[in-house]
Write a structure and sequence with these properties.
Helix content of chain B: 55-70%
Oligomer: heterodimer
Shape of chain B: flat
Largest sheet of chain A: 2 strands, antiparallel
Number of strands of chain A: 2
Strand order of the largest sheet of chain B: 1-2
Low-confidence stretches of chain A: none
Structural class of chain A: mainly alpha
Order of helices and strands of chain A: HHHHHHHHEEHHHHHHHHHHHHHHH
Number of domains of chain A: 1
Radius of gyration of chain A: 22 Å
Number of helices of chain A: 23
Strand content of chain B: under 5%
Structural class of chain B: mainly alpha
Distance between the termini of chain A: 41 Å
Strand content of chain A: under 5%
Helix content of chain A: over 70%
Largest interface: A-B, 66 and 75 residues
């Protein structure tokens, strides 16, 4: 316990430097700014803004990225409540009761309770992250290459199964991602692989470029299909602060949401979405007046918002302790860390303690900033909601171009963003969700490396490779998950989730 | 297939070649073939020490199988018969044109088939915004023009000046013509102040009267 406090203290000493506070603040503000823009979810926001963080030092960059992440999430909830346009799947349920509250003139309260609930859940989740990080990374340090390989497979399996859409299509995307990770110089021989003679591909695919194309540009192309929808926004938001009765009504929901979210977030897969759905269902079950849900029940906002924020935080756990990103967003964060020379994994906590604890405490700080800075600024965010899309998207296009060019000063990066934009849009039209692709791209190199090392150690015998009990258990678990996902009852459940989105 | 087979009202069955999953599966198989072709010269190696070509080949086979699965689903599944592949070509082409122009001319260079001069953010910025803006279903050229100049001014302030990122602001010819006495920074500031002014004037002349009228 004293250890924990010491670590947190170290973290705060890092975060409370002028530069890092500033970066966190800027991250939260820009994140919210882009996040509230209609039709742009957190993933696209991070993909678009990632180049901005490249100038800072590693800790600063990750802190800023975390700020962008929370800001974007909060921005998504804001649009869900005010205009019933959830920016991403995890705020779909928020829109149900949140927007109902807004129509009753209680938009301010919905926004307020969302922020307060998120803050409480975020504080709790920060403690959870801090508490499980050390034991988990100690555990991870003892893992062999074979263990790691099977652990990655398990994580990827979970990510695919818990995501939405067709399993087979998700598998296709994952494979393409892993193959893309192999493009470029071979890790051992340095031979050019799958480059088709192109010098540009010899360095491999840059994650920022791929993500900006697949999620940023493609999202714009998606939005351009339909004629512009002018969101109708009321100027009157009402009082922001929930009164005592509201707090009393939602206290239970926030507590349950925090716990639920913190647990679900650690499991690979779309934790934030899953936990907000689970929390909504739970709140409806425990409520004495389930009939009020969907008609502006404050618990229906407080619970899911707390849950998805707690989950958003604990999704950092697999990345920071095992080096395994479990969502596309975490894949981006992991990519940014690697870019700064900090390879995510169990060694981070020992080798870069200031970075690790700085990031953990900055999560809490980011949440605090959201409450004290974003809530009073809500009027400004509402104005941004009114920016017409036909002026908005050219702005984002230019921002993407300038941003990605400034990272490496390589014109080919910009051309590649264009190409991945088309590919992302094509995948969307073909109903392939490119999220697993990004995970595959991040993990592909590690996957090959650990398989290769594992097989060298076992002298090429698959049997020796498999005979390690932990490897066997993890691989077995993946197999069980795949088989059970194919079973009729669960695949129906996945379908329901997909349709709700 | 006749129209009577249509079970869902208002939706007609799609011929197999235009079905979403058939095209999707074909695309995936195509990608797998490309990967296989790309890995053809790489050594496979042995199991204890597999070479650079091993994993690409195994993955290409898996990918082809998965793609074939999607393809077959498209032929067999009943709902698949109603899913047509659609693609909004015009906005996609326009946006691509905008981004590609930016990439080709921001610093210029040799891109294999063609080599391009550096035009810098001052020229490429407004062009990108303007062309991209034309991808919208309804285009308001006047507003777009204001945005193109205003936004470029803002980008010039933030990226080369405030963040000091190495993004070329001027065309190569102009850059060399800047008198040393003036200095690049001053030239940059003059440029964005000028662009800001242009945007303001355009707004006052073009956009505001329109808004008032509306």
């Amino acid at each position: 316990m004293t250890d924990l406090l010491q670590h947190l203290q170290l973290g705060f000493s890092v975060v409370f430097s002028f530069q890092n506070l500033f970066l966190c603040l800027v991250g939260c503000l820009v994140g919210t700014l882009i996040g509230v823009l209609p039709g742009i979810g957190p993933l696209a926001t991070i993909a678009i803004l990632m180049p901005l963080t490249y100038n800072a030092d590693p800790a600063g960059a990750i802190i800023m990225l975390a700020g962008i992440y929370y800001g974007a999430q909060y921005g998504g909830s804001t649009t869900a409540i005010l205009v019933n346009m959830p920016g991403e799947s995890s705020s779909v349920v928020t829109a149900l009761d949140g927007h109902a509250m807004a129509r009753q003139g209680r938009a301010g309260k919905a926004l307020g309770i969302a922020a307060i609930g998120s803050f409480i859940a975020g504080s709790f989740a920060t403690l959870v992250v801090a508490a499980v990080a050390i034991p988990l990374s100690r555990l991870a340090l003892g893992l062999t290459a074979g263990n790691y390989f099977s652990l990655m497979l398990l994580g990827l399996t979970l990510a695919i199964v818990l995501g939405s859409g067709s399993l087979l299509k998700a598998f296709c995307m994952l494979l393409i991602g892993v193959i893309m990770a192999l493009v470029g110089a071979d890790q051992i021989t340095g031979e050019a692989r799958l480059t088709f003679g192109s010098q540009v591909l010899y360095d491999g695919f840059d994650m920022a470029v791929v993500a900006m194309g697949l999620f940023g540009i493609a999202e714009i192309l998606r939005n351009l299909e339909a004629p512009e929808r002018r969101p109708f926004v009321d100027d009157v938001v009402g009082g922001l602060l929930p009164n005592r009765q509201d707090m009393k009504d939602s206290a239970g929901a926030i507590t349950r949401g925090s716990l639920l979210g913190a647990i679900i977030g650690i499991i690979p897969g779309n934790g934030a979405t899953l936990s907000s759905f689970a929390s909504y269902v739970l709140e409806k079950k425990v409520s004495k007046h389930p009939e009020t849900f969907g008609k502006g029940a404050i618990q229906g906002v407080a619970g899911p918002e707390s849950a998805n924020n707690a989950a958003a935080q604990t999704t950092f756990v697999p990345l920071l302790t095992l080096g395994l990103p479990s969502t596309a967003t975490m894949a981006l964060v992991g990519g940014a860390m690697t870019l700064h020379g900090v390879v995510p994994g169990p060694q981070v906590i020992d080798m870069h303690p200031e970075l690790f604890w700085g990031v953990v405490t900055s999560m809490w700080l980011g949440n605090l900033m959201l409450v004290i800075i974003n809530l009073p600024l809500i009027g400004i965010w509402v104005k941004f909601l009114k920016v017409p899309y036909h002026l908005l998207f050219p702005t984002i296009i230019l921002l993407c171009c300038v941003g990605i060019y400034s990272v490496n000063s390589r014109p080919t990066d910009v051309l590649m963003v264009a190409a991945f934009g088309v590919i992302g849009y094509l995948f969307y039209r073909l109903k392939f969700d490119p999220t697993p692709l990004l995970l595959g791209l991040v993990l592909g190199g590690m996957l090959e490396d650990s398989l290769r090392r594992g097989l060298i150690l076992s002298r090429g015998s698959f049997w020796t490779f498999l005979s390690d009990p932990l490897t066997l258990v993890l691989l077995g678990l993946s197999a069980v998950i795949v088989i059970s996902a194919l079973s009729p009852s669960i695949s129906r459940g996945r379908q329901v989730l997909a349709e709700d989105e | 297939m006749t129209h009577e087979v249509a079970e869902q009202p208002g939706r007609e069955p799609v011929p197999p070649y235009a079905r979403l999953e058939v095209i999707g599966g074909t695309t995936i198989i195509g990608i797998a073939a490309l990967v296989w072709f790309g890995a053809i010269n790489l050594a496979v190696g042995t199991l204890p020490n597999f070479g650079p070509g091993a994993l690409p080949r195994v993955l290409a086979i898996l990918l082809a199988l998965a793609g074939a699965g999607v393809f077959i689903q498209g032929l067999v599944r009943r709902e698949a018969a109603f899913e047509r592949f659609e693609f909004a070509l015009r906005p996609t082409l326009v946006i691509m044109l905008a981004v590609v122009l930016f990439g080709l001319f921001i610093r210029g260079g040799d891109f294999g088939l063609l080599s391009t001069p550096q035009l810098g953010l001052c020229v490429v910025g407004p062009l990108t915004v303007f062309i991209a803006g034309c991808a919208a279903p309804q285009v308001n050229l006047k507003e777009l023009l204001v945005l193109a100049f205003g936004l470029t001014a803002l980008m010039l302030v933030v990226f080369p000046d405030l963040l000091r990122l190495g993004i070329p602001p001027f065309p190569a010819i102009l850059q060399n013509a800047i008198p040393p006495a003036l200095g690049r920074e001053t030239a940059l500031r003059i440029a964005y102040a000028g662009y800001g002014a242009i945007a303001l004037v355009l707004y006052l002349v073009f956009v505001r009267p329109d808004r008032r009228a509306a």
